[in-house]
């Protein structure tokens, strides 16, 4: 992630929720985001304003999608998340606990660190939940 796309934990959660909510091929509604994130619509609007200002989302009449830059940030977060999650599982943690813990800081990890972790754990293709780790690259 470049310095101009530094994001907060709430912005990270919003990016992930937008991605998850739009998996059916349609943009996600602001009201659906508020529900999935368990926050009030005005708080979602504030997050979306910040993400839009960073060029990470596009909005149209109450609907939201990730921009190309937003999709790239999402893929990077997920690569970092899955690398760290896999590392913790290899250290003895269970997959769900590792996933929950890593969600608190995966957006802070840079590519170099994620690549070092992956190298150290043998460059696995899949995370403990069976998802591709390197789809981000």
Provide a descriptive summary of the structure in words:
The chain has 137 residues and is mainly alpha-helical. It folds into two domains: 7-66, Winged helix-like DNA-binding domain superfamily/Winged helix DNA-binding domain (Arc Repressor Mutant, subunit A, Orthogonal Bundle), CATH 1.10.10; 77-131, Arc Repressor Mutant, subunit A (Orthogonal Bundle). Helix content is 55%, strand content 7%. The chain contains six helices and three strands; from the N terminus they run H-E-H-H-E-E-H-H-H. A three-stranded antiparallel beta sheet has the order 1-3-2. A hairpin with a 2-residue loop joins strand 2 and strand 3. The longest helix is centred in the middle third of the chain and has 23 residues, at 68-90. The radius of gyration is 15 Å and the shape is elongated.
Write the layout of secondary structure elements.
Blueprint: H1 9-21, E1 28-29, H2 30-37, H3 41-53, E2 57-60, E3 63-66, H4 68-90, H5 95-102, H6 111-120
Helix pairs in contact: 1-2, 1-3, 1-4, 2-3, 4-5, 4-6
Brief summary:
This protein has 137 residues and is mainly alpha-helical. Helices cover 55% and strands 7% of the residues.
Low-confidence segments, given as residue ranges, are: none
Q: Supply the number of helical segments.
A: 6
CATH superfamily of the largest domain: Winged helix-like DNA-binding domain superfamily/Winged helix DNA-binding domain
- Terminal CA distance reads 12 Å
Give the strand line-up of the largest sheet: 1-3-2
Structural category is mainly alpha
Report helical residue fraction: 40-55%
Q: Output the CATH topology of the largest domain.
A: Arc Repressor Mutant, subunit A
């Amino acid at each position: 992630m470049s310095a101009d796309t530094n994001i907060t934990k709430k912005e990270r959660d919003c990016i992930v929720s937008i991605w998850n909510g739009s998996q059916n091929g349609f943009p996600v509604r602001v009201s659906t985001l508020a529900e999935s994130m368990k926050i009030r619509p005005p708080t979602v609007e504030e997050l979306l304003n910040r993400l839009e200002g960073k060029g990470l989302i596009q909005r149209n009449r109450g609907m939201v999608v990730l921009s190309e830059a937003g999709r790239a940030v999402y893929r990077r977060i997920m690569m970092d998340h899955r690398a760290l999650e896999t590392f913790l599982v290899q250290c003895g943690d269970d997959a769900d606990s590792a996933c929950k813990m890593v969600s608190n800081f995966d957006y802070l990890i840079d590519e170099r660190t994620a690549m070092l972790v992956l190298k150290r754990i043998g460059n696995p293709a899949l995370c403990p939940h069976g998802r591709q780790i390197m789809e981000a690259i």
